[in-house]
Fold this protein.
Amino acid sequence: MTGGRAVTAAAAGVVLLGGSAAVAVAVAAPSLRVVVTWYPAAVLAAGAALLAGTLLLVATLRARAVRTRDRAQDAAHAAGREAERAAHRRFLARLDHELKNPVTALQAAAAGLEPDPDDGPRVRAHATVRGQSARLAALVADLRRLAELEVRDIEQELVDVAEVVRDAVADVVDQQTARGLARPDVVVTLPTAPWPLPPVRGDVDLLYAAVTNLLVNALKFSPPGARVEVRGSDEDGTVVVEVADTGPGIPADEVDLVFDELARGRDARGLPGSGLGLPLVRVVAERHGGRAVLRSRPGSGTSVRLHLPAAAG
Amino acid sequence: MGRGVTPDGPRVLLVDDEQAILDGLAPFLERSGLVVTTATDGLQALAAHAGAPADILVCDVLMPRLDGRALVRRLRGAGDWTPVVLLTQVGASYERSAALEEGADDYLNKPFDPQELLARVRAVLRRAVPGQPSLAAADVLVCEDLRVERGARRVLLAGAPVPLTPKASLLLDYLMTHPGELHTRERLLQALWGFEQPVATRAVDHRVAEIRRVLGDDAAAPRFVETVQQHGYRFCGTVRRGAAA
């Protein structure tokens, strides 16, 4: 704080002195013609101007130092966030490392046992061990995939986002109908005028997985037959894909958590899912230099927008 | 005909430093008709294999004393081409290509379904020719006028380099080193993409389409990649090792 106060005091001093110097110069200027005749006054004015200039320079440097310090603080915050993410990744890697052997052992042990088919309770217990260890195995694999995705190289192809959206919608609709569910009402709006969506540079499979996850979520949390809208737009070099539903929405205190691994809302507990869908969407967006933004109103619905930088050129 | 179909069944040397995994897998593989011996690190495995040669090694990667990849290098360096399936610990694609480059015949990510391990072991045994290096250890793969220079990461058709994305190259490489074998989309996704969401199986179709387009392969009368309806894909050409460039 002392430093801050000293800077303020110095700045005030500079303003004061600078002001005096300006007055001195203003006074001296009309008399430039008489500089030769009134030498001491000109020297005084020039000296004052020089002093003021020096002090201004010092003040400017101080101010720049303050800005540099602020930037350093921003950089420190960014570094802090990065360190936090790195620590999080290390934790996930350790978790993965510590879980995969026990889960492999459980799966192997369950596969090695064959209960007497007439012994109902044992058959059921065996099925539980097999089913639950398979579920754990899938969870471990998904967590690892997500942690890997944050750091590994991703492909850098030109991707037609509109095609990704159309494919993802077609596939999700087909899957729902193949599972015997009512054909979902998904309305897709993609621009053709004045131009179609520009391409994005990145990994087509990851972008497909992100859009698919958003669609599956939107349908899962909507009442049967409710409409889901998918919109594409391009704004100032950013391609935006929005998936919007009229589901129950997410309570305000949970909105900030939905992009965290394994976060599952109170209202989602009765529904199947691993809590890794939206984190995947977030990581895919970030790896493409973009972001995912969620807006929700309880009772109205939820919209998630993927912002992706358009490919240069 | 593959090797090792002795009256007692193929001999598997199972190597993992986690005793609980050996305890679970060994009886499962034995019940499936294999003869299983176990070791808990690479050095122990080398000693066991020297004493009573196995037909195939199933080997963890991260182990004390001598790890799985070093074990493969030792075997191959000594001219021993016994097939090896690596149980990779680090799932990154780097690890997958490194496993192949060092001469492992196949790999599975932990945790895995024991049935999938059995399927891999059987497929590798079917392909293996005793005493000969497998295609997975070849630097150059050739099928008709298609030439894949694996070290240089180049694909040539009729002598001219063709552009394939890294993912399509990896897929072509995998299909060519496992010719004649049916691969489900799910298996290919798991092996090459590292994830298995059923919704993403279209990713495999896209890359197969790219391979066909770039290689001028007709899906209706394929020379290279054949679609097996409802199931997946198979490399249908005859693959041989090529002379180094």
User: Anything to note?
Assistant: The helical segments of chain A are 2-28, 39-112, 120-151, 161-178, 204-220, 252-255, 277-287. Confidence is low (pLDDT under 50) at residues 1-38 of chain A.
